[in-house]
Amino acid sequence: MSYTKIQWGAAFVLLFINIFWISFSPLKIYYDREAFLGVSIGISILFFFYMFYKVFLFRQAPRTVLFLESLLLMLIFILLLLVFCFLMATLKYPFVDSTLVFIDSIFGINSSAVVLWFRTHELLNYIFSSIYKTYFYQIPLIIVYFSIRGDALALQRFVMQFIIALILTIIISGFLPALGPYVWYNYQPSPTLAAALAQLLELREGILDFSHKNGVVSLPSFHTVAAFLYMYTFRNENKVLFVSIVILNTLMVFSCIPIGEHYFADILGAIPTFLVAIWIDFLIYKHIVHVWTCRASQEIF
Predict the structure, then answer these.
(1) Which of the two ends of the chain, N or C, has the fewest CB atoms closer than 10 A to its terminal CB?
(2) Is pTM, for the whole model, over 0.90?
(3) How far, in Å, CA of 54 to CA of 48, rounded?
(4) Do 69 and 50 form a contact (C-beta atoms < 8 A)?
(5) Cα separations (Å) of 133 from 3, 67, 128, 166?
(6) Strand, coil or helix: what is 189?
(7) What is the pLDDT of residue 296?
(8) Helix (H) or strand (E) holding 28
(9) pLDDT of residue 298
């Protein structure tokens, strides 16, 4: 029993769920064959190098194996969970925007007012939009950093926590979907937000178009969940690095509202999602340690 085995097992289970769901649903499915072929070839090449290094060069280059393994798992899970996210959106549960707006009002927050204020201050709007996008770049940073350090346990636990948190986020968003503050408050969305809304509405009509890859999750904010995960992952690292990560991700959480991506309630919803993901990973870690301890005891006696 190991993190790697659990993660690969989870990937196959998720693949089976996606295939089963698509096969027995009346969805109209569209996809770009060239893009599909390109992704398949890219994953296959990465998998080839991973297996080559793992089988023949593991002792000489364990950090390379760790890097390739973590990168491969993250890419596979992100692709599988993107499909799963789209499928969950087809469930067509009622939108919960009115509830989210009510929660925001309890805290005295009007998302529309915040967005419009930032749009009149273009420099600040650009800065926070850029910070919001660092979510994507911090994933390879973590993989590279812990691979170079050779800290397999920290990296494997991060991958596990990320996967668990993303699964929880997608399930919650499927049962509690929201259109987003830009629809509720009727302000002009960015092209990205407009495309995401269009895809969400398509999915609810039973149209699954893989040529569009927009985020369709509002509640909980996965940017916020990821921000907490990034900070948690670096908690035992160099203080300067840890403080830098905390500052960056605190700003990323704050940026969710000014750029119009989320309600404040979405951010609040990310907190229990993060805590549950950490708790589940802790249970998995305890089980793995228990299994290895029992094996070591048996070998001694």
Answers:
(1) C
(2) yes
(3) 10
(4) yes
(5) 29, 23, 9, 17
(6) coil
(7) 63
(8) strand 28-30
(9) 62
**One-letter amino acid of 45:** I
Query: What is residue 69's three-state secondary structure?
Result: helix
Do 73 and 12 touch, CB atoms closer than 8 A? Answer: no
| DSSP states of 269-294 | HHHHHHHHHHHHHHHHHHHHHHHHHH
pLDDT tens profile 39-90: 999 999 999 999 999 999 888 899 999 999 999 999 999 999 999 999 999 9
pLDDT tens-digit profile of 163-204?
Answer: 999 999 999 999 999 999 988 888 887 788 888 888 898 999
Alpha carbons within 13 angstroms on the beta-carbon side of residue 172 total 21
How is residue 176 written in tokens?
A: 């509690």
| Radius of gyration over every alpha carbon of the chain, rounded to an integer in angstroms | 21
pLDDT of residue 300: 57
The beta-strand segments (E) located in 132-274 are 207-209
In the three-class reduction of DSSP (H, G, I as helix; E, B as strand; rest coil), residue 301 is classed as coil
Residue 41 has a CB neighbour count (10 Å cut-off) of 10
CB 164 within 8 A of CB 73: no
Partners of 30 in beta bridges: 209
What are φ and ψ of residue 28, in 5° steps?
A: -90, 115
Tokens of 171: 């399930």
Q: Which helix (H) or strand (E) holds 82?
A: helix 62-89
Q: Which helix (H) or strand (E) holds 29?
A: strand 28-30
Torsion of Cα atoms, 204 then 170 then 143 then 237, to 10°: 140
Separation of alpha carbons 57 and 94, rounded Å: 53
**With 80 as the cut, is the pLDDT of residue 151 above it?**
yes
Least confident of 24-28, 118-122, 175-179, 188-192: 188-192
Q: Residue 27 — left, alpha, or beta (φ > 0 → left; ψ -120 to 50 → alpha)? A: beta
